[in-house]
Design brief:
- There is one protein chain.
- This protein is of the alpha+beta class and 305 residues long.
- It has 3 domains: 2-84, Uridine Diphospho-n-acetylenolpyruvylglucosamine Reductase, domain 2 (2-Layer Sandwich); 90-205, Uridine Diphospho-n-acetylenolpyruvylglucosamine Reductase, domain 3 (2-Layer Sandwich); 219-304, UDP-N-acetylenolpyruvoylglucosamine reductase, C-terminal domain (Uridine Diphospho-n-acetylenolpyruvylglucosamine Reductase, domain 1).
- The protein is built from 8 helices and 17 strands.
- It has helices spanning 2-9, 45-57, 90-93, 109-119, 134-140, 201-217, 240-247, 276-294, and strands at 17-24, 36-42, 62-64, 71-72, 76-84, 100-104, 143-144, 147-148, 153-159, 165-169, 175-176, 179-180, 188-195, 254-255, 258-260, 268-270, 303-304.
- A 4-stranded mixed sheet has the order 1-2-5-3, with helices on one face.
- Helix 4 (109-119) crosses helix 6 (201-217).
- It is globular, with a radius of gyration of 20 Å.
- The chain starts with a helix and ends with a strand.
């Protein structure tokens, strides 16, 4: 595969597009899974358009990868990963509170959370502590117990697989729990307009307190990919899957180098050289145990890339 890709990329001459063949992808995964693959880093909207057009025309499969916070990467990939790395001047765009923010998809949620703390932006507390890019968060409607990011999205800017640029105003029905309903296969979110719900100094305190709570109750300083399972239908969206895994005594369960966290049972921790196959094995074990004991099918929140 590498030799074929090398031959293919030898003619890949697109401005602001940087190609890396057989890259070590551990740093593209918050769980630091053992993974290798080909990556194209895109530094402008134009490079994204041209790359999508070329890959689609050449029938080369691709996936967008952000921080890998909700992704299970295989050890070897048959498709190309696209990494957005657009310029963003924090001093220029985040020096004061605004009514609306036009932001690149590659900006970090932690940067936006810091801005929300500084100026008390109501609504932005919903993504406190989520280790992701804005684009990845919008794709899966990321959220916490405080709410979901869809609550503060006005518009998304999309590049299609043909390289066309589309602006979509977000409306009711465009999002549900951990899911969007408007992106088509091959679409890439490259920017978004976010609003806030007013300014209140109490929001700063709320964010700090919630971040402290997450650090106390979740293994945020270890290599994880966030919550593994969605809550089953009818349950509150508060990682109830973790509660069931806990009361069943399955904390500490392990497959290879992947272990159910002792701190929060809906998290799995990479103890050394974990792979996607090991994560999948442990997920299957937990799903079967919960199905047998509770009669509930817990869907996975993480995606296989």
């Amino acid at each position: 595969m590498s030799s074929k890709r090398s031959e293919y990329f030898s003619s890949f001459k697109i401005k602001d597009a940087e190609v890396e063949i057989d890259a070590d992808l551990k740093l593209f995964s918050t769980m630091r899974l053992q993974a290798h693959g080909d990556v194209i880093t895109l530094r402008s909207v134009e490079s994204l358009q041209n790359t999508l057009k070329k890959l689609t025309l050449d029938q080369v499969p691709y996936r967008v990868i952000g921080w890998g916070a909700n992704a299970l990467l295989p050890e070897e990939s048959d498709h190309i990963y696209l990494k957005l790395a657009f310029d963003f001047d924090k001093k220029k765009y985040l020096q004061a509170a605004r009514e609306s923010y036009h932001l690149p998809a590659s900006v970090s949620l932690s940067v936006l959370s810091s801005h929300a703390v500084k100026f008390g932006l109501k609504g932005w507390e919903v993504f406190t502590g989520i280790p992701a890019s804005l684009g990845g968060a919008l794709y899966m409607n990321a959220g916490t117990n405080l709410g979901e990011i869809s609550q503060v999205v006005e518009k998304v800017y999309i590049a299609t697989s043909k390289g066309e640029l589309i602006t979509r105003e977000i409306k009711d029905g465009d999002y549900s729990y951990r899911k969007n309903h408007y992106l088509k296969a091959g679409d890439v979110i490259y920017a978004a307009d976010l609003k806030h719900l007013g300014v209140d100094p109490a929001v700063s305190v709320k964010i700090r307190e919630y971040l402290a709570l997450r650090n106390k109750t979740q293994p945020l300083k270890e290599f994880t990919c966030g919550c593994i399972f969605k809550n089953a239908e009818g349950f509150q969206r508060s990682c109830r899957a973790g509660h069931h895994i806990d009361i069943m005594g399955l904390k500490g369960s392990r497959v290879g180098d992947v272990e159910v966290s002792a701190k929060h049972a809906n998290f799995m921790v990479n103890r050394d050289r974990a792979t996607r196959l090991q994560v999948e094995g442990l997920m299957t074990l937990l799903q079967e145990e919960m199905k047998m004991s509770l009669g509930i099918n817990f869907e996975t929140e993480v995606e296989k890339f």
